[in-house]
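look at this one:
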Amino acid sequence: MALEHEYTLLGGWSRSNVGRWIGVAAGAAASGTVFLTLGAVNLAQTFGWAPALPPLVLWPLGAGAWYVAIYWAFDRYAWKFKPLAAVLQVPDLSGTWDCEGRSLDAQKNVIYEWSGTLTIWQSWDKLKVRLKTAQSGSESIAAALLFDPTEGYRLMYHYRNDPRLDQGELKTHRGFSEIVFAANCEAAEGEYFNGHGRYTFGTMQLNRRNKK
């Protein structure tokens, strides 16, 4: 099973800008923490309640430690809050999506229809897309998320597809998919193109399952 991978952000806030703001917050938090800690220790020493504080004790309160803690919280949770996500222009697409697909021929006639479940795992830094159908399963290898002011959010990803063992006529192959999400990120439509073992293409309609 493929692990989650990094993805490119296009059109929204860059990760370098976010990193700079987190650095500012970490510096402010470290300064405030050290100031309060030293103040408390000095007050305790005045009344003879505490010995001198070695500088090494303040090391965990430094900006580096604060940066790691703040970035972890941001990567896993904070960026998903809707007001912040709107500013960053990065949607939370994580969850389960019901997918209805159509495979087309060169004249765009429907060859057959299929259905599946698309699962997206997403943090600020990493993402993974898995599509499971009755015949096969595919997982993303690389991806990019684009914010387009005229069309909304567009997810583009390269994937590897592995058929079930009982699907002898199908072969392992790679492909590319592009999905455009509605403004509320509750529905989407997309296209896919297969190659390197299976030369087919088609369309997809997706609807997000309600989160419990």
